[in-house]
Design goal:
Largest sheet: 8 strands, antiparallel
Radius of gyration: 36 Å
Amino acid sequence: MEDILHDHLKALGRDIGKSLCACKVDDPLVCVEIPEKESGWVHYTRTRPAARKLIENLQNGVDVPHAHTLPGCLPTPPEDLRRYLTSVVEKGAEVADAEMYEDDIKDAPGVYSRWMSGGTQICHLKSWKNAAFFGSIFHHIQINSPTDVELATWDLFHGHMFVHVASPNQNKICCDLGILFHAKEFPLEYRRNNLGKVIPIGHTDAGGGEDVRMGSKCSIKQPEYYLRNYLWLLSTNQVVVLDTHSDDLAGIIQNMEFHTVGSFYFKQVGDINYFPPKSFTGSVVNLLAEKERDHLRNYVDGDAKDKDSKLNVGERIEFMGKMDKNRWFAAQVTHLIASSKETARFIFATPRAHLASPTLRIKQAIDGVRRQISRLDSYRLQDLENMLILTNKTEEKRRKNAETAHTRSTDDERERDAHTSLIFSRRIPPSARHFVLNQINEEKKTRQKRLNRSNSMELEKLLRQGIDKKDATAALSLTRSNSTGLLSAFRAQNLLQASFSKYRPEFLCESFGSDDYEMKRVAAYQAHAFYAASTLRAMLLDKIENIGPMAAGAKVAKIVALETHQKWETMRKRRGVIVETLGSKGMSDKLIQIMYHYEVEP
């Protein structure tokens, strides 16, 4: 197994070290002076007594019988997390979140929205290193837990992040960041109403195909189910698994049937959701975690058959800690996860202060206006601008008329004024029109820059083919799109080939001669015939039938479409004959299929 794991990690591009890394936290607690201005830090001192006692015992290195430290080693936490804590105390959670997360609120991906902890609106962390570190904790739990854990939507996929501030000591405040992870989130017995009965998985009352228990492998009847709460602290950079049977945790148990340690007993600042694909180091987990747990069941639990399995947690962890090679490989996996930008793609955060921030909400509303404007085509964009300007002028005219009381509007003017007032005055108030007009102007500038860039590239394409710049510019201008203003090197090249013999391919010269034509005249035919050959055919047809460029171009286009259809029909029949012949000679179906797709010229 070791060789397989080693090769797998090599294939992932990980430089394998020679010893287990030791990532210790040199300066555990973040301590800052008490801010002169109230920033809300007092809120984070109100952690429930049972939770406070647990956190502070872990911080002080006190042996906690109901909190078992997982073996293995986590990567060093990014320094940003310590800065985040300082900002929470000194500036408040809203400012701290603004420094930690991107200034953008997004809807959760539809495929994950029904599982997303913290709501269906999410944010991404600014630094991929912070996101990747959080992802590594999930993998650390999965690989080093003494019980089966899977990174799946029904098992471990989220954690509740909180801030804990100790009681002020003289003029200083010491604080810590933690995450309470819930594994085995949706067991087979999960139900929306605790007093209701269990509904079969997939039942319409449980959401049918949207049932959150789909694929679940866990049950509250499993002896190890109670080992589903994990706690990580920045100050220790370790994860402990909590024994919910302990009376010391009774004060923070939300639901004893499902052994849930309540997140609201801690002072939450947000949730971290993680949905990695199954292929993300999946083979490492299968080889290491599953085999190791089978080993534990055979050798540790097998020696304690008369004991309740809950008493074997400490024994299991102690046994795992002695398996140095396994812990080394586990550390390599978590460090690989923490050092990969790819990990950040699967982290979705729901920071409370950030999502509720008025300034961010207003920014989202402004961005929404910009998005709506950017979705309008050029005609509707111009209509919107004209109507806004007209509404402003109409209201100004009304004010002047009211002041003078001499000028009377005509019936048509009054009807038009009423119409524009109904549409725009109610929907876009005067105070917002200036902003909307500015956004329209910005959008028009953006589109013009994009158009200029695209058109310059089309000109370059023709110049690289050796076409004279004057001819290229004229051809592009004559074939410009009326609706978008876009130039097309392809359309211009076909016009040039139809107009001038020097740009005409040899096969076209053989078919239509080497005469040159006025480009503007040719463009009238090309607008309907499109290709160079079709354009030249339309000109010859018009010379014979005298039906005009539009009719000649349309007629040739129909003839070419019919000829193309007949060509492909002939090829289809010939291929059919070949397949039938090969089949009669005993050729294999696979060979016949290859021959069928081979292009046979008619």
